[in-house]
Structures
1.
Amino acid sequence: MSSESIEDYIKAIFQLGRNDDLVQTSAIADRLDVRPASVSNMVRRLATLGFLVHEPYRGVRLTDEGELLARRMVRRHRLIERFLVEILGYPWDEVHEEAERLEHAVSPRFVARLDRLLDNPATDPHGAPIPASDGTMDESAHPALTELSAGETACVRRVRDGDSELLRRFEQLGIRLDTRIEVLETTNDEGTLTLRVGDEQRRLEHAAASGVFVERTAD
């Protein structure tokens, strides 16, 4: 098994199990687009290496060692995304896949220098927290836009980053980090929300709005 494959599995399990739930092997297969048999083989390998615990018929969870490796991977990925946007001028909808490729190639020394170059950023271009070098990370959660009621206002703090088309949709509607949004009407029969984004009235599909995470603000 290559170290790259191990890192991909560890990061996938970390992202799937953020509520301390056991992660089903079928969910890992779906996330990584691999066969269930391949997941079973890797789970046994990772358990032998001490990165996870497997509870038969229930799922897997990372050990402390696995959790630390995952957080280092996430740190590397999000710093690279920030570098691509701030230094190389990439749009935010193009950096995720690029960072996926680059994160396996850079050394810890490179990551440390990248962090200093970027002045120790707290978040990536999509608002996700960047773990510190010791693995600690701001675990604060923000409600999805779909959780707000009509008449509430909020500020965008994070957007889901795995779908380039969705990010382009947000950009077209003016939904960016720190954007102020007012909910004018909650989901209607067409499955959309009516919003005021800045000075413009916009409509956003419920599924897309569930990928916008906000902080409620006073009127």
Note: The first helix runs from residue 3 to 16.
2.
Amino acid sequence: MAGLYIHIPFCASRCIYCGFYSTTRASLHDQYVDALCHEMELIPEKPSISTIYLGGGTPSQLSHEQLARLFSYIYKVYDIDPDAEVTMECNPDDIHEGMFLHLPVNRVSMGAQTFDDGRLRFIHRRHTAQQVDQAMEIIHGLGIHNVSIDLMFGFPEETLANWQQDIDHALRLRPEHISAYGLMYEDGTPLYRMLEQGLVKEIDEELSLAMYDTLIDRLTAAGYEHYEFSNFALPGFRSRHNSSYWHNIPYIGLGASAHSYTLSTRRWNVSDIQQYIHSIEQGVLPYEEEVLDKDTLYNDLVTTALRTREGIDLSTVSPAHLDFLLSNAKPYLDRGLLVLEDHRLHLSREGIKISNTVMSDLMMV
């Protein structure tokens, strides 16, 4: 079984943290869907599919007709598991009655980000906190009871009390899954330029760590499983698709910027939408490919499996890499930052806070 990931790089508004602005029209949406369908035909691999994920961008900007055509083609080209997890990312304000009618979507991922309207305006989100609440009601009314919401913490001038209010609001909605991330100031984005100009200021590291600790404490106390650094799920509601990335399961990526993985290779499509469409129309798959050697596969294992609650299954590590791994892990094991149990190596809660350092020391240079 493999996963199918479909990148829909259409944003509904200018995002202060990604900087992308969409001026797309329906005709471009149609061309893009046509290209996605054609790409399915061009890709030689036709594995059985256990998860489908429409996201990265805003699939909810596509019309119902376009989505129906895309899903129809997916089910025509691939052998889809009858119990497949089918996730669609949506903006809260795009959710409306009947939007999933006759579509196989059984999981919705929604970017709430925050329940403070002022902070939503700061990151140029169109929706309001109230619209997130309304969207949850509509989704449940449509018979979908597997919803994930994204939260963000670490806004300029945000306090721990502000963050606790966001968590409280999320818990009142009781989504089956919550992903939470610290606000990032990425080079080249409008937010980064504001930081350089002194218009905003990052919160200090101590407060950021306190916010992360509060997140873990509150969500686990409410019955959520902290199964990956940034992800929490009620029992039985882990993201099966995202888990495939962390557990070395192959996946096919469709669309501009989409990545694919085959256990021995990694490939990625061009990022430019028009270039992607033109190439596909010419019958050419517009990707670059990397053949993965044993050291690269080992490094990938460190940086993916170690993000999870279960950590690295040592039985999957070659003898040569295992000696290196355990030798380099020893200082962190001695300090309680790594834990070795049931033939698995995982980070402790304190170890997660310095995960980049730990992972770097466990990787083959």
Note: The CA atoms of residues 338 and 347 lie 4 Å apart.
3.
Amino acid sequence: MLFLFRSLMTLLHLGALALATGAALAALVAQGGVFSDRLDVLTHFAPVWLTLAIAALGLWILAGGRQPFAPTPVMAAIAILASGALIVPEFLRPSGGPPPAAGETLKIVQFNLWGRGENPDRAVKWILAQDADILVFQEAFARSGGVARALSSQYPYHVTCAEPYPCSTMILSRQRPVKKRNLGGNTPYVLSGAEATFATPQGEFSVIGVHFTWPIPAGPQQQQTLRLARVVAEHPRQTTIVSGDFNSTPWSFSLRRQDQMLGLIRRTSGQATWPATAVSRWKIRPPLPFLAIDQVYAGSDWKTVSVTRGPKLGSDHYPIVTVLRR
């Protein structure tokens, strides 16, 4: 019995060391994302490396670890520091200042509906309850396409990314846009986006909705950022709003560079929106979302009233509800 116990403790020690070492290596290599888009892919998973490091420490303590400078706690500490160096700056960014007590208020729902969305009726009910001014959707096709159709009586104005043809990135609004434009199609190397400009007593403002490709392989996503930056530059930056599924997290160097290029203030602050359902062919269901890939930007004239994450609605993404005021 004693032999079995010692063998179990040894396995726990080895498992903890393997977890800590793997997390430390991944978090350290991810720092290379500052100069390499390929290495930058690892930055998106900084919360995973952090969680693995903490789990490794827990296993090490469970196995009877007590020496603070043993290999396992040292590697775990490296992983925690390196992951923290990626994550912490997101929560130290300036917010753009408090909103005015009164003024023009705009409510936006950002939501990737997912082509295989499981509960469109529930999604429609929740969206209507938000009473938003503007809806920005991605993957509004197949089963999820029924959501946009079901909302058409309340949101009669649609702009898609490839009008007049069906396209899965769209902007829905109660108010008729004074200008509208599609920005491309659905292929990974083209910016899947739509643009609508609205006129109010406070002046015009433009909303741009986008859906970026995955960060793998490196390159296409960064090209989409360059295209989006050119589109944004055509509008007054003080009033322009950009909302979308960027498939990019705020701890990545790619998104940080995008923040600078767009010249807008990103109003989302690390709200994890993926996954909201089981993922992969093995139907793995993570207990919590861990990728903050849905983002909302707005120009300096807009102040943030609130940014909140919605509930599970049958998509693999959670929606984001942003309230702005100018």
Note: DSSP finds eight helices and twelve strands in the chain.
